Inverse folding.
């Protein structure tokens, strides 16, 4: 099991809960901090003393207080930690549920696991830590189901560009000019109409406004 674990979590009750979960797994006593700046400092010091951490567990969002921080949130901490220690295992424990946000963490930031703060999260944390220890990725079951539902339509770069322009207030007939300027193809008005109709049909919407609201809700735009 992991020997050196660092927890970055600003909520005391969640911090205690995480420590208990780790104790149940038989891990050595984890270290914990309430601020991202402190977490990065501890990671740096651990590397210097040749006793690097094996696992970082972090939230995504940290409340601001009188202690001003250079690193405001978990995503920035993950990027900085990976730059220092690329092999560091990272488990995100957060209330965030937007599919696009979580996908970005896996694809672009190369996290190893994600557990949403919700019912049964203690059980999922144990499963996640065991999975990571065995060099496997982990996503809690509730989020797997949400991802399956949200991915009933696979949004392309063209789709996102079209929807983003609608959000900006660009008339549909003028979107081809934007696509042409940014070398996004196909850029014809008929192609735009077909993509919008396809998205609405697959997702069960009748209006562009519903599609836009849905994309905002899942973090596509």
């Amino acid at each position: 099991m992991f020997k050196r674990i660092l927890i970055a979590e600003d909520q005391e009750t969640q911090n205690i809960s995480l420590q208990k979960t780790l104790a149940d797994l038989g891990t050595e006593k984890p270290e914990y901090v309430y601020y991202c700046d402190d977490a990065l400092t501890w990671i740096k010091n651990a590397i210097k003393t040749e006793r690097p951490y094996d696992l970082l567990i972090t939230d995504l969002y940290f409340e601001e207080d009188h202690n001003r921080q250079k690193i405001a949130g978990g995503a920035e901490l993950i990027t900085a930690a990976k730059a220092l220690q690329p092999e560091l295992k990272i488990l995100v424990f957060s209330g965030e549920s937007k599919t696009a946000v979580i996908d970005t963490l896996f694809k672009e930031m190369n996290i190893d696991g994600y557990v949403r703060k919700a019912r049964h999260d203690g059980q999922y944390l144990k499963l996640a830590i065991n999975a990571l220890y065995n060099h496997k990725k982990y996503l809690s079951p509730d989020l797997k189901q949400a991802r399956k539902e949200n991915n009933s339509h696979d949004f392309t770069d063209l789709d996102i560009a079209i929807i983003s322009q609608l959000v900006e207030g660009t008339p549909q007939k003028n979107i081809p000019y934007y696509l042409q300027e940014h070398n996004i193809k196909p850029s014809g008005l008929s192609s735009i109409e077909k993509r919008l109709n396809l998205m609405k049909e697959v997702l069960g919407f009748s209006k562009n406004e519903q599609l836009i609201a849905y994309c905002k809700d899942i973090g596509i735009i």
Q: What stands out?
A: Residues 5-140 form a domain with the Rossmann fold fold (CATH 3.40.50.2300).
